[in-house]
Amino acid sequence: MGNVIDRPGHRLPRRVLGPCLLVLGLTCAASGAWAQVEAVSAETISAETVLLHTRVSETLPSETVPSEARTGQAATVEGTGSESPAEVGVEVEEPPAPEAAPGSSSAPTALATPFEAYVRAASQPLTHGSDLLSFYEVFGFRQAWADQARVEALTSALEGLDADGLVVADYSTAALLAAYRDPIDVTSLGESTSEVARWRFELAATQRLVLALRHLYLGKVDPVRTDAEWEIPLPDFAPDWAAIASAVANGDPAAALEQVRPHQTAYRQLRQGLARYRTLQAAGGWIPLASLTGVLRPGDRALEVIALRRRLAALGDLELLMPDLTPTASASGLGATQDAVPEPGLASGSSADQIYDARLVAAVERFQHEHLLEVDGVVGPRTWTALSVSVAERVDQIRLNLERLRWLSHALPERYVLVDIAGYEVSYVRPGQPTWQSRVVVGRPYRRTPTLRSAITHMTFHPTWTVPPTILREDVLPAVRRDPFYLVRHDMRVLDRQGWPLDPWQVDWWRPGPIKIQQRAGPSNPLGDVVIRFPNRHLVYLHDTPSRSLFDRAQRSFSSGCIRVEGVLELVQLLFEDDRASPDEPDGAARLSRALQRTDTHNVRLRVPVPVFLFYSTVQPAADGRLIFRPDVYERDATVLAALVEKGGENLFDAP
Predict the structure, then answer these.
(1) Using CB atoms within 10 A of its CB, is residue 424 exposed (0-12), middle (13-18) or buried (19+)?
(2) Count of Cβ atoms closer than 10 Å to residue 104 Cβ
(3) Residues 176-223: pLDDT tens digits?
(4) Fewer beta carbons under 10 A from the terminal one: N or C of the chain?
(5) Ordered DSSP codes for 79-145
(6) Which three-class secondary structure state does DSSP give residue 494?
């Protein structure tokens, strides 16, 4: 067989030449250099060589396939696309194939078909190529997009991702459909190259599906790119490939996407809210409110009251519409454009409509409550500004928060504690049990509560408080320099690096060195009766507080980064209750009571750590499905939105 290639007269018909051109032109096809495939001469290749090369290329890693045949003949095809050129050699004799590693997807157990060989090699240089390969392995290395109906179903499903707030342009659906409907003219290149062109289109279509699956599963944007403090690791991309392949086989790629779409109720409600706001946006939205002069108080009469009625009706906070408004607005208010009228038209309202009456006051208070404004019924600058946010801005706000939910969705276990930083709430989610919720105080904008994932390991009862370095440097040291009795009045002591007490009167407070300041347990201790601890580099935790009046404030960003929890002992009791190994052990209430009865500072560990998430979101659905928009207290929305709308998909495998 050593001189088979040199035999004269061994010419192959194009139907036999196809697999050969696939193997020799693989890199060329992956990079779009179709014309160079013609350069391969059918006169120098035998059918035996084709078979052997197909087998060798599937059993050897690509780096180990020599670039020249042992006969001295070389078949080299260079690519001209974004991937680097590669040399593909033709072996005359078949070497022994190495054993594939267990679970390896790079080496098939049976002789590969030409299409399988193409998929395996072409997917290697691609971003997420392993996902592409996973799909085809489950799909049996069959072609998924061989007819127009399936291609159109795919493009329709991808375009439907607009409902998730994703950017449809990332998937190049128009170009993909055009490539199928109007393929390149490959008749001059021969039957085999035409087949490779079809395979290339096949991979281009599947890669777009894979990209969409990843976007729904993990989000499009890398959260660390938008927030250097983001410390919630994204989960591994582990979809149910069998279910996805089944949906594709049934001609329903939309069902494949549904397999990975976040299943949480909040995500579904945000999608529904996005659809409603887009309907309102398509109908014209609403015009900006005129500037408010002064404030509106209950009982006032003003033309601005008519604009206020219209806006609250459109938002769904006012159920009864004015008589001169079209009655198409539902309680959700999204689908009506009643206040999208010229400003002079406000005068068309009756005299009674200009009165800021009790019913309108109630609607304003509801709006204030849901937008985390002070609930007083007085329409001042902050309330008027929140009312003036455009429909387009709300659409963007919903979109970027859908992206945040995608970051988190597949990372959530069955049981977890979640701190909603921008919503000033904490929830304890337990399977089969009602969710426990309470209000929290979080970090100031210049001392932000970080976004992170950890696990609650233990509680500290009657805790001392060691002043964190930032607070020591920026707050306590300046206070001690101003007031020598500051430490005495706050029941604080000074410790050295090893934790030994120091005489505060012997410390140079302008150059104190590596000291610590610790506040003893007691009623004035800012940590209260208990601290819920979880490992993190920021040294933040959940804790009790003696300053409980702050929970009544609408916006509660007053801490130095830690999370103060209203009713924290209820949460501790539930954590203890769920930590019982058997019904014979003390219940949560008994365990909590025993810990509180001790007067010393001590820790109580959980048998099983409980996952905890500190999360940031500026839109939250209410119980009735209406959306609650929160102030972006940490100003994080803009960077997420910019990254979300940025054109992606730059490493997509081009359709021929």
Answers:
(1) buried
(2) 10
(3) 988 888 765 544 444 456 788 889 999 999 999 999 999 999 999 999
(4) N
(5) --SSSPP------SSPPPPPPPPTT-SSS-SSPPPHHHHHHHHHHTTSTTHHHHHHHHHHTTT--S-
(6) strand
- 230-259 pLDDT, tens digit each: 999 999 999 999 999 999 999 999 999 999
| Range from 154-163, 221-230, 359-368, 506-515 that averages highest in pLDDT | 154-163
In this structure, what DSSP letter does residue 625 have?
S
Based on the fold, state whether residues 231 and 379 are members of the same structural domain: no
Per the CB < 8 A criterion, the answer to whether 23 and 54 are in contact is yes
pLDDT at 639 over 60: yes
Phi/psi of residue 533, each to 5°? -110, 145
Dihedral angle computed from the Cα positions of residues 419, 424, 430 and 431, in that order, rounded to the nearest 10 degrees: -100
Same domain as 431, residue 349: no
Q: Are residues 51 and 134 both part of a single domain?
A: yes
Tokens coding 531: 């601290």
In whole angstroms, what is the distance from residue 131 CA to residue 174 CA? 23
Tell me, what CATH number does 526's domain have? 2.40.440.10
CA distance 237 to 214: 7
Amino acid at the residue 62: S
Q: Is 462 a catalytic residue?
A: no
- Which of residues 243, 258, 273 is at a domain's end? 258
**Alpha helices per DSSP H over 527-618:** 568-578, 588-597
Read off the amino acid at residue 464: T
Active-site residue among 369, 538, 562, 602?
562
463/590 same-domain check: yes
3-state secondary structure of 268: helix
The listed range with the strongest mean pLDDT (220-229, 356-365, 433-442, 515-524) is 433-442
- State the pLDDT at residue 576: 97
Q: How many residues does the chain have?
A: 656
CATH number of residue 348's parent domain: 1.10.101.10
Which of 161, 264, 281 is CA-nearest to residue 209?
161
Does any domain span residue 649? no
**Residue 20 appears among annotated catalytic residues:** no
Which of 28, 371, 543, 602 does the annotation list as catalytic? 543
Burial class (CB in 10 A: 0-12, 13-18, 19+), 60: middle
- Domain count of the chain? 3
Q: How many CB atoms lie within 10 A of CB 504?
A: 19
What is the rounded distance in angstroms from the CA atom of residue 595 to the CA atom of residue 164? Answer: 47
516: left (phi over 0), alpha (psi -120 to 50) or beta: beta
Residues 154 and 80 in one domain: yes
Structural domain range at position 372: 286-389
Task: Give yes or no: residues 182 and 84 share one domain.
Answer: yes
Is 267 within a domain?
A: no
Q: Which residue has the tokens 């989960």?
A: 235
Report the interhelical angle of 114-123 vs 14-24 (nearest 10°): 20
Q: How far, in Å, CA of 154 to CA of 212, rounded?
A: 11
Spatial contact of 208 and 172, defined as CB atoms under 8 Å apart: yes
